[in-house]
Each structure stands twice: as structure tokens, then as C-alpha cells.
Amino acid sequence: MRPSDTGGSYGWPLKPFDRQHPVRGYLNDPRIPDAAHKSFHFGVDICGADGTAVFAVEGGVAHLQSPTVVAVVSSIAPRTFGYWHILPAVIHHQAVARHQLLGHIAPGWGHVHFAEKGRGPHRNPLRRGALEPFEDFQPPTVAKLAFSRRGKAVPRTAVTETVDILVEAFDTPALPAPAPFKGMPVAPVRLRWRVLHRGTLVVPWRTPINLGPAKLPDSQFERVYAPGTRQNHPNHPGRLRFYLAHAWDSRRHADGRYLLEGSMRYCGYFSASSVSARSRSSPASRTRARPRRRIHHRRLQSSS
Q1: Per-residue pLDDT at 263
Q2: I need a surface site. Which of 140, 188, 217, 248 has the fewest CB within 10 A?
Q3: In this predicted structure, what is the pLDDT of residue 61?
């Protein structure tokens, strides 16, 4: 296992400890119980049948935070591990050893929500040097690039003035999750975009979204996730739509055909998509005929 500057790596909380398990929910996935409450997922959901035994990944002191939540404050590093949706087999303030039984997955949950928190926000257990072994050879998917203004779609043939740039994108779990969450989308780690004009770079790569290292503040939810985003529910896949840019000013560039490229990354894999568009002046600022902007969509092959 690789060393980490946050306390070192650790094995899985389910047996076998040294084998990767399916994960159906990733850090910073959208959580939208209703229209008034939106938040980022603060851990990973590791699949396991109801009643599956859950073990401590690191020794420390157990704290019963609720009837179905056990937190273990590490005895070797400044961090706390949370185990949610389990029926505890330990008592409050009990000292526990590494790989000691903590409880069993509670009826109806089908997973243990596993979280790691240091001095700051929750960290991504799937980052390099943390939960191991973990490998992801599934390339992510960039499904669609689009434009909007004040929440309404802007046709690709009418990109004028300031527009928001949106992308529909998702990753696929490294190992398939069982039903009813089989094939559900999960959040990628990093999203970026750039603009070219006749092969010349006019807007260099920008990386507005980095979902990988740690949980984002919930106050940023509606700046990261665009309208139309839905979280996964049993037998009902969610939809992940992101803002690549807010109020991007197309007037900074001369009218003409442009290529917008977007890409995303997870665990070393990149996927990309692009749209070509014609920039067009708004009627109020037009003093002579301008060529119309047309956008054609094409997919780019993913690459490692």
C-alpha cells in the first residue's frame, strides 16, 4: 500500500479486506431529497447485503452518533472514520482494534456509507493512498455540451452575448453495483473545457470543477450542478449536469466558427466531447450582416 500524508492507506471495511468491493455512490454525488434541500455526498457507498458484517479500517475509539451510525476516532492519525446504516456491535467510547467488528448493515440499506474526515472537510476515500486496493478502468462519459442563459437553453446556432456552458457527464462505477443500483451514474473527479478557432487555441484549458479531493461546501451546489440534475434512486438512474462556465462572454471573440471541447477525468482516464459553433453578434450591436453561428456535435474517443 502507498503511503499518504493523511495517515496512511487502509483496507476495506467489508471482508475480504484486501479485495476491492463495488461502490455505488461516490464523493460529491448530488443528494436531492427535495427541491429545498441539495447537498454533496460526503463519502462513498460500499455495496453489501443487509446483515453484512462491517469492520474498523483503523483502530481507535468508537462513538455511537446515532442508532445506526458509528464513528471511530483514529488512534494513529488525526482523522475520524464514519460507518453509516449499520446496527452497532460496539458501545459508546469503546476502544476498537483494526479489523474489529463494528456492526452489521441495517435492513433495507444494502450498503455501508463510509466516510473519512480530517481537520477539514470530508476526504475522498477513493483518492490515491487511502482506501486500497482500488482501481478504476472504466472510462468516463461526456454525453452532451450545451449553452443556456438565465436557465433557458440557447440553441447552438444562436450563441450571443453571455451564456452559461453546461455539460452532461458521468462516470461508471469501477465494479458493477447490484440491482437496484446497477448501471447508475456517479460523479467524475475533474471537468475542464477549452475553445479553438480554426485550429488555434483562443481559450486555454480551464478546470472549473474538481470533485475529487474533498467534499465541496453545500453552498456551492447550484454553481456546480446545473438544473436537470437528479440523484440516483432504486431502479431510476440519476442525471448529472454541470456548469463549465457561468456568464461566459462570447463577445470577446470575433464572429465565426468555434470548437468547444470538454473533457473529464477519473483515475487517469479522460473522455471528451466537442461542439462547433458560430459566434454571432446580438441584433442591438450589429451594424452589418454577420455570418450565423452553427454548431455541430461530434464525439471524441476516450483516451488514457
Answers
A1: 80
A2: 217
A3: 98
CA distance 160 to 280: 5
- Which residue from 219, 198, 170, 201 is spatially nearest to 25, judged by alpha carbons? 170
Rounded CA gap, 72 and 115, in Å? Answer: 10
| Model confidence, pTM | 0.86
pLDDT < 70: residue spans in the chain? 1-6, 264-304
Beta strands in 100-250 (DSSP E): 101-105, 111-117, 122-123, 141-149, 152-154, 162-170, 190-197, 200-210, 241-249
Q: Tell me the β-bridge partners of 184.
A: none
Closest to 63 (Cα-Cα) out of 78, 46, 83? 83
Alpha-carbon distance of 232 to 242, in angstroms, equals 16
| pLDDT for residue 292 | 31
Specify whether the CB–CB gap between 46 and 14 falls below 8 A. Answer: yes
State the pLDDT at residue 55: 98
DSSP 8-state secondary structure symbol assigned to residue 283: G
Residue 138 is predicted with a pLDDT of: 79
Residue 170 in contact with residue 186, Cβ under 8 Å?
Answer: yes
Given phi > 0 = left and psi -120 to 50 = alpha, else beta, which region is 17? alpha
